[in-house]
User: Fold these one by one.
Assistant:
Number 1:
Amino acid sequence: MSWPAVRLCTGTSMPLLGLGTWKARENECYQAVKTALNMGYRLIDTAESYENEKEIGQALRENFAAGLKREEVFVTTKLWLTRFHPDDVLPACQRSLSNLGLDYLDLYLMHCPVAWARGDNLYPVDDNGLPVTLDIHYMETWKAMEKLVDAGLVKAIGVSNFNISQTKEVLTNGRIKPVVNQVESHPYVGCHWLLEYCRANDIVVTAYCPLARPGSKEAKDHGVDMLLQDPVIVEISKKHGKTPAQVCLKWQVQRNVVVVPKSVNPARIQENSQLFDFELSEDDMSAINQLDRNARVVWFLRCKTHPHWPFGEEF
Ligand SMILES: NC(=O)c1ccc[n+]([C@@H]2O[C@H](COP(=O)([O-])OP(=O)(O)OC[C@H]3O[C@@H](n4cnc5c(N)ncnc54)[C@H](OP(=O)(O)O)[C@@H]3O)[C@@H](O)[C@H]2O)c1
C-alpha cells in the first residue's frame, strides 16, 4: 500500500513522508536510504551541502536495478548558497544530477534566501568567522532556476527558509511558481501564518527538523530539546499508543505538511513511518497548535545582519 501524498500545483504528487538525510554520510547514508526505500519511503530529501548525493545515487541505482521505477520515487535536492550567482545554477544542478545518477530532479529548492561567495568552499568565511556574502538578490537566482524547468532538468522548483514576504516576492515576480517552501516546523514552531499563506497560494509546505533535532547542541542552545518530552505531546502519544515522535510527525501530515525526519537507525526509520494507522482528534491538533512559541533549531544566525536573513519575520 502506498502512503498518502499531496498534490503539487504542477499536477504531480509528492509523498507526505520522506527521509531526511542531513548529517547522514557515506555508508550510513547509503544504508539508511536502502532501508527506507525497502520500508516504503518514496521521498528522499538531500542537498549539495549534505555531501551525500553520491551515496543516495548508489542506493537509488540499486533499487532501480531491482525493479523500483524512477517515477515511483520523489527526489528533492537543494541549490547551495555558494551557487546563487545565475551562472552557477545550471552547473550546480547538473552536478547534483550526476551525483544522484538521475536525469531529472523531482524538486530543486533554493536552500535559503541569502547568497554566499562563489566557489567550491561551501562555507566561505572572513577573518572573523563570518560568512562572506554575495550581493545577489534571490530573484536573480530564481530566474536561473526557472531555466532548469524549461530545460527539463527539474520537474519543479521551490524555496527553503523563505519567510512570507520573500515567498510572496517570488510568487509575484517569478515566471514559474515555487511549488514548495521547505521550512523548519515542529510543534514549537508551527509556522501557522506561513502555512495559511502557502495554502491560499497552492504552495506545499515541507517541515524540516520535524522532531526538533533531539539531542543536538543546537536544539539545547535554543531551548527546543525537550520537544519529545513535552507533557502535551507525551500525553497525546500515550492516549494513541504511539511515540512522541510519531505524534509530532502525524500532526504535520494531518495538516497536509510534508515531513522529512532524518534517521540512520532502522528501528527509528520504521517508527517514523508508522503514521497512517491512527488519527489525531481535533482537540489533539489544537493542543499541539498551542505549543507554538517561534522557537527554532536553525537560525542561520551568522547571516543575521544580511538584508535577506529570513528570520526577522515570524513564520
Ligand atoms: N532546508 C533546510 O535548510 C534544512 C535544514 C535542516 C534540515 N533539513 C532537512 O530536514 C531533515 C530533518 O531535519 P533534521 O535532520 O535537522 O532534524 P530531525 O529530523 O528533527 O531530527 C533528526 C535527529 O533525530 C533523531 N531521530 C530520528 N527519529 C527519531 C525518533 N523517532 N525518536 C527520537 N529521535 C529520532 C535522529 O537520530 P538517528 O539518525 O540516530 O535516528 C537525528 O539525530 C534533514 O535531514 C534534512 O533533510 C533541511
Note: The radius of gyration is 19 Å.
Number 2:
Amino acid sequence: MVLQSWINIENHLNEERVTTNISILNEKIRQYIRRNFSNDPKDFMRVPLMLITHPPPKIRFDDVIGIEEGRREIMDMLLMLNDFYALKKYKIKPPSGILLYGPPGCGKTLFAKAIAGEWGVPLIHVLPSDINSRWAGETESNIHHLFRFAKYISPCVLFIDEIDGIGGSRDGIQWRSERMDLSQLLTEMENIACHYPPVLVVGATNRLEDVDFALLRPGRFTKRIFVGLPNKNERVKLFKLYAKERPISNDVDFEYLSEITEGRSGAEIENLCNNAARNAWRRWRHRKKDGEITYRDFLDVINFRVKKQGVPIYR
Ligand SMILES: Nc1ncnc2c1ncn2[C@@H]1O[C@H](COP(=O)(O)OP(=O)(O)OP(=O)(O)O)[C@@H](O)[C@H]1O
Ligand SMILES: [Mg+2]
C-alpha cells in the first residue's frame, strides 16, 4: 500500500497545492453515482446516506472556543497534508485519522466542521445510523462505499460522528456480522492512510472506552484530541459569542455569569443565552418596549442555588 501511495504522490507532483475546484467536484459526485448505481430507485437505496457539505463549510477555528492545543496540532497536520514535496522528501506517511473525544456538547461536531472549513475541502458527515443496516453484509458494503466515495472526491474530510456506534469494542459484541463491520472499518481506515489526494478521517465520540482498541492504534486514529468542558475564560468567550448578535443591555457581567456556570458545556451556555433571549422577547411582546436582554434574564435562566459553603449546585 505504501508503494501505491508514493505512486499517487508522483502523479500529483506537478500540482503545488491541493485545490478543490467546485465545479469539478460537483461533476465528480454526479459521475460517481452514475457509474456505481443505476437509475433504479432500489439500487439508489444502496448509496449510503451521507451529508456532503460542499462547498466547504464556512466554519473556521475562530468560531470554536477552546481546544487551543488541538487546533495548533491540526493546523500543523493540514499544512503537512498540503505539502507534497516535504512529504516526499522526508518520506512522511501523511496523518489520516483524528479522534475527538470528550463530554457531550463541548464542540466536537463543530470542531470537525471547522477542520474541513479551515482546510477548504468538502465535508462528508455520517452517523452510524446512516450506514448501519439490519441486512447481513449491507453495513460492510455501506462502509466500503463510503470510503470509496471519499477517495473519489478527495481531498476531503470524512467525519464519522458518534463512531462508537460502528467502531465499538469487540468485547461486548455477540454477533458475527457486527465483528465483520468493525473489521471492514479497520481495513478501510488502513487503506485510506495511503491514499492521495488525502482523505482526513475524523471520528467523534463521548465514549472513548467503547471504541475498539484496534481503531486507536497508530495508522488509524493517530491523533486523539480531548474536547473538554470550557474553563472560566472560555465560558466568558462563549457568552460573548452567543450574545454578539443579540440586543444585550450594557450591565451584563459576563465574568460573573462565567463564574456561576462552572461545569457547563458550550451547548448549555448557548442554550442559556437562547433562554435569556426568550425571556426578553416575552417581555417585549407584552409591553412592546424594553427589547433588551438584561442581566436579570441571564440570572433567571441560570437557575442555581448556592449551598451554605457557597458552592453552586445546578439543577
Ligand atoms: N467550544 C465551543 N465553541 C463554540 N460553540 C460551542 C462550543 N461547544 C459547543 N458549542 C455550541 O454547542 C453546539 C453543540 O455542540 P456540538 O454538537 O459540537 O457538541 P458535541 O461535542 O458534538 O456533542 P455530542 O457529543 O453530544 O455530539 C454547537 O453547535 C455550538 O453552537
Ligand atoms: Mg456531536
Note: The two ends are 54 Å apart (CA to CA).
